[in-house]
């Protein structure tokens, strides 16, 4: 499994538009990406323009399918004017603990 943490900062006043884009994206991820095991958006309680996506994929193929999907590409275009800077993305290997 592969985990992804993507951190973004949203422009002031663009928070509700950003959340709407992510809400539509999240629905499509759940409907069309069986290899996606978790797709959540979180927000800092102290810095309300700071968000983190927490994602979990079955394998590298599932992660690639997400990145190449039309719904993900369209959401990137929609987010472009809403973000305050480039996203910071971290890819992590999941450690299996006797599961």
TrEMBL record:
Residues 2-91 form the ABM domain. It comes from Rhodococcus wratislaviensis NBRC 100605. InterPro entries: ABM_dom, AI-2_Isomerase_LsrG, Dimeric_a/b-barrel. One of its GO terms (cellular component) is cytosol. This is ABM domain-containing protein. It holds the Pfam family ABM. GO terms for molecular function: oxidoreductase activity.
């Amino acid at each position: 499994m592969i985990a992804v943490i993507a951190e973004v900062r949203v422009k002031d006043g663009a928070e509700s538009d950003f959340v709407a884009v992510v809400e539509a994206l999240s629905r499509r991820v759940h409907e069309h990406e069986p290899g996606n095991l978790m797709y959540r958006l979180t927000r800092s309680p102290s810095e309300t323009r700071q968000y983190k996506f927490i994602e979990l994929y079955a394998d590298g193929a599932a992660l690639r399918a997400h990145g190449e999907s039309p719904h993900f590409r369209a959401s990137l275009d929609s987010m472009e004017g809403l973000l305050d800077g480039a996203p910071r993305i971290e890819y992590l290997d999941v450690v299996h603990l006797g599961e």
